[in-house]
Amino acid sequence: DQQVKQNSPSLSVQEGRISILNCDYTNSMFDYFLWYKKYPAEGPTFLISISSIKDKNEDGRFTVFLNKSAKHLSLHIVPSQPGDSAVYFCAASAGYGNKLVFGAGTILRVKS
Amino acid sequence: NAGVMQNPRHLVRRRGQEARLRCSPMKGHSHVYWYRQLPEEGLKFMVYLQKENIIDESGMPKERFSAEFPKEGPSILRIQQVVRGDSAAYFCASSPGQHREKLFFGSGTQLSVL
Q1: What's the average model confidence in pLDDT over A15-19?
Q2: What would the mean pLDDT of B104-111 be, rounded to a whole number?
Q3: DSSP letters along A51-93, please?
Q4: What are the distances in angstroms from CA B95 to CA A84, A98, B22?
Q5: Nearest Cα residue to A22 out of A8, A34, A33
Q6: B102 and A34 in contact by Cβ < 8 A?
Q7: Cα gap A45→A36, rounded to integer Å
């Protein structure tokens, strides 16, 4: 029972263009969403988050959009850089605490 | 200012042996979480501990797996009588509190069961 789904296993983007990573969820109790970035042989590192009371959060080149009615969120990276090449995980939580439910991840490759 | 430290980085065990994975949280963090990543999958929550207490172990298999976070020393994830299906990357994360804090992950322990 996958409560958080990232349907694109991989994405390839040209340097300087926009990268859009998508995530869908099924549990309407989720009220906090996060994106993590992971390089090989390292642990995930926090990138950006959004509370369910918002529909957009921006941090530099990274913007997360939340569409609650569609149970969908997306991460936009603009402009994309080769150093952004990594696995991106969408995660969600319900209520207090840090018990996160992760998607399977999307491999982003930014070509120079 | 060290981050979350996990050791060993790689652990090889034969079927039936025990695996012990260690995690030292970031300084000042009293909340520890263990997650497991199977190949081609996302991270899956296993257990949440505070010092000397297991708060939520809803993601732990009922048998062979146990976790502790003693008053002194690192958190330990222990897997008894390992089987090939236990082969995975095990990540520990810590946070200073419970309220929507961001988790800080360690680099993980890759367990391989032969």
Answers
A1: 98
A2: 96
A3: ETT-SEEEETTEEEEEETTTTEEEEEESS--GGG-EEEEEEEE
A4: 25, 8, 16
A5: A8
A6: yes
A7: 5
With CA atoms as reference, the chain A residue closest to B48 would be: A99
Residue A89, CA atoms < 13 Å, CB-side half-sphere: 21
The two three-digit tokens of residue B54, written as one number: 């297991």
> B7 is written with which tokens?
């050791």
Query: Are the Cβ atoms of B103 and A41 closer than 8 angstroms?
Result: no
Among residues B85, B80, B106, B87, which one has the least CA distance to residue B26? B106
* Alpha-carbon gap: A80 to the closest alpha carbon of chain B (Å): 23
pLDDT on residue A11: 97
User: Which of B48, B106, B112 shows the shortest CA–CA distance to B86?
Assistant: B112
> Does A1 score more than 70 pLDDT?
no
Residues B5-59 pLDDT 10s: 999 999 999 999 999 999 999 998 999 999 999 988 889 999 999 988 999 999 9
Can you tell me which residue has the tokens 């603009």?
A78
The C-alpha atoms of residue B93 and residue B95 are separated, in whole angstroms, by 7
